[in-house]
Amino acid sequence: MATRDDIKFLSNPTLGQQRKKYCRFKKYGIKYIDYKDQEFLLQFVNEQGKLLPRRITGNSLKYQKLVAVAVKRARHLAILPYVTDLLK
Amino acid sequence: MNHYEVTFVIDPVLSGDEIKTTASTYQSLLKDQGCDIVHVNEMGLRQLAYPLNKKSSGVYYCIEFTSPVGSVIGKAELALRRDERIMRFLTVKLDKYGIKYNEDRRTGKISAYKKKESKKKPSDASGSEVAAAAPVAPPVEIIQPEPVIEAPVVMAHSEEE
Fold first, then answer.
1. A31:B101 CB<8 A
2. Which of B10, B68, B115, B136 is deepest in the core (most CB within 10 A)?
3. B92: closest chain A residue by CA
4. Rounded to an integer, what distance in angstroms lies between the CA atom of residue A72 and that of residue A33?
């Protein structure tokens, strides 16, 4: 019968595993977040234009705060919307 | 010496010349107050994310300047607030990273963030392009992210009215 070597996984064992989240600002050395760069800031808001939590983006606390400030400045200048639907 | 940056949105209904004179008014105003203009970024006609004064687009300008005294800001903002041609404005004091970022943007070390095509999963594709800082060709958009070539291009929009 089947030996231990023959045993194959029915599904990919790495499938359910979560990739480790990281802070992109720390990893790539980004020190300043431009409030005029709409495309960049769109990564940190959801479809309704709300800020995404750190839980999801993986930002460190320091940079999450800077992201929040940049998004709020962009909203004031009508670069990003305050409220909307189907932003992405 | 403090480093500041004032961004404002000009009414798009004005003619191209009027928009230019509006922007240069504030440059000369800042110069009269003893500021040094570091750079003027004409971001051009852009769609607004929500209507301002019942208009759906606006002409963006960003003036970066240094000032020995902070009292200039109050005077400049008062003038901006009284001006009917200005729809929105925002003055920001730049920290050392902001100054460096703007400088790198001008010299082309950093290009504007561009959405990546699905090479990687969208969750981890982000950010790497900004850090790579390679001067890739500017994205085809309403904004012209390269400040060098901007000046002649921007005013082409104004003939639409």
1. yes
2. B10
3. A73
4. 12
User: B48 with B11: CB under 8 angstroms?
Assistant: no
| Percent helix, percent strand, percent coil in chain B, to nearest 5 | 40, 30, 30
Judged by phi (left if over 0) then psi (alpha if -120 to 50, else beta), residue B44 lies in left
Q: What is the DSSP string of B28-64?
A: HHHHHTTPEEEEEEEEEEEEEEEEETTEEEEEEEEEE
Task: End-to-end CA distance of chain B: give it in Å, rounded.
Answer: 42
User: pLDDT band at residue A1, thresholds of 50, 70 and 90?
Assistant: low
In total, chain B counts a number of residues equal to 161
Q: Which residue range(s) make up the domain with B105? A: 2-160
- Quote the tokens at residue B130: 């900004």
pLDDT digits (tens, 9 = 90+) for A5-41: 777 777 777 777 778 889 999 999 889 999 998 999 9
Residues of A in contact with B124 (CB under 8 A): 19
Residue of A nearest to B55 (CA): A78
Separation of alpha carbons B58 and B103, rounded Å: 25
Cα B121 to Cα A54: distance, rounded to the nearest angstrom: 19
- Write the CB contacts of A1 (distance below 8 Å, at least 6 apart in sequence): none
Residues 40-59 of B with CB under 8 A from A: 43, 46, 48-50, 52, 58
- CA dist., res. B71 & res. B7, Å (int): 18
A61, with CB counted inside 10 A (0-12, 13-18, 19+), is exposed
How many Å lie between the alpha carbon of B143 and the closest alpha carbon of chain A?
A: 10
Count of residues in chain A = 88
Q: What is the pTM of this model?
A: 0.71
